[in-house]
Amino acid sequence: MGKPLQSFRRYLLDRMVLRPSRVHIPHGVQTRVMMDVCGRSLECFVQRNFDDDGPADLLVLKFPGTAGRAERSSMTPVSMLDGVRGEVWTWNPPGYGRSEGRASLQSIAIAAQHFFRNVVQAGSVVPGVIWLCGNSLGCNVALHVAATMDCGDASAGLVLRNPPPLIPVVMRIARQYPLGQRVRSIAESLSDEMNAMKTAPQVSLPAVFMQSEKDELVPPSIQDELIDCYAGDRRVVKLSGLKHAGIASPEQEALIEKEIRWLWNQTGKESPTCANQ
After folding, report:
1. Secondary structure of 59-84 in the HEC alphabet?
2. CB-CB contact of 56 with 14 (8 Å)
3. How many whole angstroms separate alpha carbon 126 and alpha carbon 98?
């Protein structure tokens, strides 16, 4: 009974957390790449800020949030670094866009490892610098990848916005509804791979955290619990007045850019590699 019950609870958690979509979205100048992951297609998009065949200085892997789509990806944060040749890969996890499979937290965790390996093997940045970027739920994915993957000779860093410790976030939302306390067993069925409170202490890479002051989904007080247990050097950018999905003002963009340059300085050739976390 234990395993079927756990599977059912995780299915319910998937339904509570994930917001997959398959509607067509224009992808602009990005190039679509279809990867094979465990016999299923995984849709990714790649863009770069240079046209020649030379190597990139920086490889960025992006993990969107619970309702995010790779088609909307931009060159940020590469665009904040003058003179840096960057290549940005953004994925649609299983169940999103043209990526096959059912959207689930477990399938996302598994597919993320394959996405990382496939991009690093195909990329032009080994040795070099790799950044993992996550927005909201994508932060959990980025932390999972950072905690488990070997970057070889590459240096690595993270850029995370509004990272959610999922169990307290789900419980907080559930309390607004009748019988909300009964959700606890569902929330606590979360796998360790997607539990950022367990992966963050395992990651010692330098990181930039962006925190929306008025975040209605992941309040700063909850985000702080995760940031405080992160094992690496970190900078936190407070985005005053912004809600969870708010757009940064030019003044806030300048604050972000300052810390992005700090991260670039931290992840140079002399920085510790991902394998030496």
Report:
1. EEEEECCCCCCHHHCCCCCHHHCCCC
2. no
3. 28
**CA 208 – CA 162 distance, rounded (Å):** 11
Q: Provide the 3-class DSSP secondary structure of residue 215.
A: coil
Assess whether the previous peptide bond of 272 is cis (omega < 30° from 0): no
Check pLDDT > 60 for residue 124: no
Write down the pLDDT at residue 230.
Answer: 98
Q: At what angle do helices 220-229 and 166-174 cross, to 10 degrees?
A: 160
- Whole-model pTM: value is 0.94
Going by pLDDT thresholds of 50, 70 and 90, the confidence category of residue 67 is: very high
Full strand arrangement of the beta sheet holding 234-239: 31-37, 40-48, 86-92, 58-63, 129-135, 155-161, 207-212, 234-239
Is residue 157 a contact partner of residue 131, using CB atoms and an 8 Å limit? yes
> The dihedral of CA 246, 251, 252, 257: what is its sign?
positive
Domain definitions of the chain by residue range:
2-267
In angstroms and rounded to an integer, the radius of gyration of the C-alpha atoms of the chain is: 18
**Homologous superfamily, domain 2-267:** Alpha/Beta hydrolase fold, catalytic domain (3.40.50.1820)
Cα angle for residues 219, 224, 230 (degrees, 5° grid): 140
Nearest residue to 140 via CA among 171, 172, 173, 105: 105
C-alpha dist (Å) from residue 246 to 91, 135, 142, 149: 22, 12, 21, 31
**What are residue 47's DSSP bridge partners?**
88
